[in-house]
């Protein structure tokens, strides 16, 4: 529930955050909790797992591990989804550049081998 997420993170989460996460396809409503007020239960989606390279939710770090790495501090909690996505896109661009460099090196190596075989 939203209240449980806020309790774990230690910050109030606005509806806009949930809207952004749903727009990204990372969360979806998963029913209602059987308590007074029947709050919405939120579930992560397969897109969430795929985006973060997780096989299952069991691969997520525990709360203590997240706290020790700073992922639950006030500074990180105040980042919005757009900032996080921009950071992720920078990382992906760097990885893409590395892969392109490796592909170019492979092509160059193969052309050198072909030239050596021709002589």
What does this protein look like?
The mean pLDDT is 76. The chain has helices spanning 2-9, 15-24, 46-51, 63-68, 74-77, 81-118; strands at 27-32, 40-44. The chain is mainly α and 119 residues long. The protein has a two-stranded antiparallel sheet with strand order 1-2. The chain contains six helices and two strands; from the N terminus they run ααββαααα.
Task: Give the topology, please.
Blueprint: H1 2-9, H2 15-24, E1 27-32, E2 40-44, H3 46-51, H4 63-68, H5 74-77, H6 81-118
Antiparallel strand pairs: 1-2
Q: What is the residue-mean pLDDT, rounded to a whole number?
A: 76
Q: According to CATH, what is the class? A: Mainly Alpha
The strand order across the widest sheet is 1-2
Strand content: 5-15%
Q: Cα distance, first to last residue?
A: 70 Å
CATH H level, superfamily name: Winged helix-like DNA-binding domain superfamily/Winged helix DNA-binding domain
- What's the number of extended β-strand segments? 2
Summarize the structure.
With 119 residues, the protein is mainly alpha-helical.
Features of the shown structure:
119 residues, mainly alpha, Arc Repressor Mutant, subunit A, two-stranded antiparallel ribbon, 6 helices, elongated
């Amino acid at each position: 529930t939203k209240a449980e997420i806020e309790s774990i993170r230690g910050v109030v989460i606005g509806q806009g955050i949930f809207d952004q996460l749903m727009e990204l396809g990372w969360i979806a409503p998963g029913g209602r909790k059987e308590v007074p007020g029947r709050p919405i239960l939120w579930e992560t989606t397969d897109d969430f797992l795929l985006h973060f390279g997780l096989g299952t939710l069991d691969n997520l770090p525990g709360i203590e591990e997240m706290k020790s790495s700073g992922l639950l501090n006030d500074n990180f909690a105040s980042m919005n989804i757009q900032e996080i996505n921009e950071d992720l896109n920078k990382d992906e661009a760097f990885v893409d550049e590395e892969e392109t460099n490796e592909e170019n090196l492979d092509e160059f190596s193969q052309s050198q081998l072909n030239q050596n075989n021709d002589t």
